[in-house]
Automatic annotation (TrEMBL):
<dbReference type="GO" id="GO:0005524">
    <property type="term" value="F:ATP binding"/>
</dbReference>
<dbReference type="Pfam" id="PF02912">
    <property type="entry name" value="Phe_tRNA-synt_N"/>
</dbReference>
<dbReference type="InterPro" id="IPR022911">
    <property type="entry name" value="Phe_tRNA_ligase_alpha1_bac"/>
</dbReference>
<keyword id="KW-0460">Magnesium</keyword>
<protein>
    <recommendedName>
        <fullName>Phenylalanine--tRNA ligase alpha subunit</fullName>
        <ecNumber>6.1.1.20</ecNumber>
    </recommendedName>
</protein>
<keyword id="KW-0067">ATP-binding</keyword>
<feature type="binding site">
    <location>
        <position position="256"/>
    </location>
    <ligand>
        <name>Mg(2+)</name>
    </ligand>
</feature>
<keyword id="KW-0648">Protein biosynthesis</keyword>
<feature type="domain" description="Aminoacyl-transfer RNA synthetases class-II family profile">
    <location>
        <begin position="111"/>
        <end position="339"/>
    </location>
</feature>
<dbReference type="InterPro" id="IPR006195">
    <property type="entry name" value="aa-tRNA-synth_II"/>
</dbReference>
<dbReference type="GO" id="GO:0006432">
    <property type="term" value="P:phenylalanyl-tRNA aminoacylation"/>
</dbReference>
<dbReference type="GO" id="GO:0004826">
    <property type="term" value="F:phenylalanine-tRNA ligase activity"/>
</dbReference>
<keyword id="KW-0963">Cytoplasm</keyword>
<comment type="similarity">
    <text>Belongs to the class-II aminoacyl-tRNA synthetase family. Phe-tRNA synthetase alpha subunit type 1 subfamily.</text>
</comment>
<keyword id="KW-0030">Aminoacyl-tRNA synthetase</keyword>
<dbReference type="InterPro" id="IPR002319">
    <property type="entry name" value="Phenylalanyl-tRNA_Synthase"/>
</dbReference>
<dbReference type="InterPro" id="IPR004529">
    <property type="entry name" value="Phe-tRNA-synth_IIc_asu"/>
</dbReference>
Amino acid sequence: MEQQLKELQTEALAKVESAEDLKQLNDIRVAYLGKKGPITEVLKGMGKLSPEERPKMGALANEVRAAVSSAIETKQAELEQKAIEEQLAKETVDVTLPGRQVEMGNAHPLTKVIEEIEDLFIAMGYSIAEGPEVETDYYNFEALNLPKGHPARDMQDSFYITEELLLRTHTSPVQARTMEKYKGQGPVKIICPGKVYRRDNDDATHSHQFTQIEGLVVDENISMSDLKGTLEVFAKKLFGEDREIRLRPSFFPFTEPSVEVDVSCMCKGEGCRICKHTGWIEVLGAGMVHPNVLEMAGFDSKKYTGFAFGMGPDRIAMLKYGIDDIRHFYTDDVRFLRQFAEHE
């Protein structure tokens, strides 16, 4: 039995040394050290030995197992290192090759327009105010002079979550919330950019989700002429110094009087497809803040007056860049977005 164990050790060590890969080495491990291996088979015959010989053979068997196991571990480390070196050799990078140019992205046209409008009004002394997109019925309607059952609510077909919660239909709730924070003390001078939601059938000019920027000024002695002057500066800076604006009477529950604001078309009155041959393009709605809205926000309407305006950056971007379908803004088509890199 002693001779058998020594021969098995010599045989196993020779095979370990000649192993060429990790799979072959593992097969050797299983063959010699496994439960059905020859070393185990030899040990099964220890019952036939005398009590004096058994400890000696047991110790020898353990020495053989340890020698084979140690040889396998050493060979395994050697083969693993060899495999790493071969892999590194295959994946060698030629650092002398010219680098690949990284394609840079560019700002989304909506982002560009929103930031341009924000910068314009910040330069005029406005601050940016934000609010939640999931809004309460009170701030979205009631605080803006739209009590429950008011027919003008139908103009803004809404996504209701509960009877008192909905996705905001405009950014006007931010104005109401901001005025409350001022606790009846002016001046207030803010713009409110953000996403809004209305139940609408998506087509080339309508979307159930779009963006708005609304502005609000509240102070003593604010008049309609202040509103008109502000919007003239806005139109000339955004569309060109040669542009003019006109105000047309309109109705909004939260302003009185209310106006629709048009900007002169780039065709200079000659008439084109963009302005539908009228020479004017509607860009926003505005008006003097309704006294009820001021009072609900805690302002004394006899002391304070204000104006508000609201515009859609989607529509302005379409006019500015000649985009014919609002859905292009939301499809994430890089072919569409790449067109605006040249405007950076």
